[in-house]
């Protein structure tokens, strides 16, 4: 039997794999919809201080969190 | 008005300074914004990337996302070396400093509670994979070794149709066995480790097309552990890890407690073990 690389027990890794990092930085994580298409799940949760944006820019900005489930 | 405020993290006022050479988004060092008993770690970012509409597009560009996530991580990593830090979700953006202050005001209670909860704690990640495709094993006579011997990648050509079918069947059984063992192990690991941790969080299993990891991710969990108990926790993961071909356990950390900051800003991942 060939030895598995993890046989010696798990080792702490210093460099976070990108996917592991994204799991943590984005509550919804990243999903793959096609072979090459990546989407952030729950993009709507991105916290943009929109009220402030609207009032300070004073431009007609479309309604903050329209659900756009464009799939 | 073409700059917005990106908020990396929230901390308490602390003695000392930001570690030198920390670079956040756009290669710019982050700045501390004091507001009452909280401090926001912020950076200026261009509105053409971070205003809501462009941001949604940007977030789906993997290269941009990678660079942004790495910059965010760099700042959080640097902050955790100097003080207890609540990492915010990627792309928490305010329009200006007063927006950041409002963010702190609005979340004051949650930030304060979370800072207390995270003080002196680190996060460890534990993943379990079912990996029915073994490493190419040493060739030997078919069907002569132990129960549920792992299927071989390139067995000798079957002598007959019956041989072939028998081999197909046993390799399918081996695969199913791997799945069952991986799931059983995931349950055991999660139960045992949750007891040893102060909190546990489950992330959704990773898609292997994205992680490029071998096998299928069955468990993708995070545990909040006191920094000084890390060694024991790691040893426990080692003890619970079977020498099982086809089932793999991966441990990562220690990390800043990203998975346990969710309650501070917004709903986090499916978090368990914090009671109530």
Automatic annotation (TrEMBL), chain A:
InterPro entries: Gas-vesicle_GvpA-like (IPR000638), GvpA (IPR050530). It is found in: Gas vesicle. Keywords: Gas vesicle. It comes from the Bacteria. Belongs to the gas vesicle GvpA family. This is Gas vesicle protein. It comes from Streptomyces chryseus.
